[in-house]
Amino acid sequence: MSKKKTKINQYSTDVESALYEITELGISSDSMADYYEKIHAIIARLTYAANFFIALYDQKSDRMQFVYFIDEVDTEVNVQDLGILTQKDLRKSVTGYLLRTGEMIHLNMQEVKELESAGTIDPRGSNAADWLGVPLCYKNELLGAMVIQSYDPEIIYGKKEENILQFVSRQIALLIKNKLAEQELLEANRTLENRVFERTESLNQINHAMAIEIEERKKSENIQAALFKITDLVSTTSSLDEFFKRVHQLISKLMYVENEYIALLSDDDQVVEFLYHVERRDTRPEERTMNEKNKRAGFTERILSDGKVILFNRKKEDGKAKNGSDYASYLGVPLKDQDRTFGVLAVQSYRKDITYEESDKNILMTIGKQIAT
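RESULT FIELD:
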């Protein structure tokens, strides 16, 4: 893989990770002040953000309020000092200019001076070498602005920083909208505690649902990546044993697979051979004969006979295993070539605190289909 492609992949991963963290903040932050501070930390990991602020805009009153402000030059200025900007003040600031256009604004020092000379904005604060701001929009509603700036002429923002700010701004705006809606409800219904509780619960469910959705999306992406790698392993591994070992490693990134085996049925459907076997407690089983007598002897034989998945979690009433290991949970999926089941991919857990579920079954079935092809 080229260095350029590696950088692109890393950049994509960093931005996706940032989006996930920003969503998580909607649930974990103790306050809006805490939320803005943590957003700043996330942005600072992606790009230079020593000078950063967030301002909220009220369309009804046409007023803007700084809710977070960090600046390495104007160090004595804080959010409380900035207060609320009226329509008159707002119209003459760079941030106000951004809010009027509703679009990303990227200006160098010369461009800022040209706007000042034209009377579009008034000189305010220290002169930045580079100023980059994006609107925070939820659907068609303008919620505010997020800005980074550099006073160092050697630190200039480019297309990458523009893309980063625009990309994360949508998620930030969505969560700010949720938080603002929550605050408005709390303020408007202080005397109606039951309604406040119901609404808060509703918002928590929305945030929780968003977190689950992102987690599921990440899991789906990981499964898809594993499938691509398995396809690649077919041509890059030198032996079947190496192939199975590498597949085991891939599955371990998706679920608990300390114990795994792959059994294959001979072409004449008479012999079961355990070609891959990693077990904490047992040694690799000898090859076994498949006949009418032992087709139901164990889970492996049942899967080969029926071509169906087996998910088994041992209960107290099940007692100890009569044959084989006394595992707490077992999950086995068939390996099929069209209608013929020719093998089994199975995982086992001896730990009572780790049992397999439907989600694990779906993952292993998907991996099994890819191996079989």
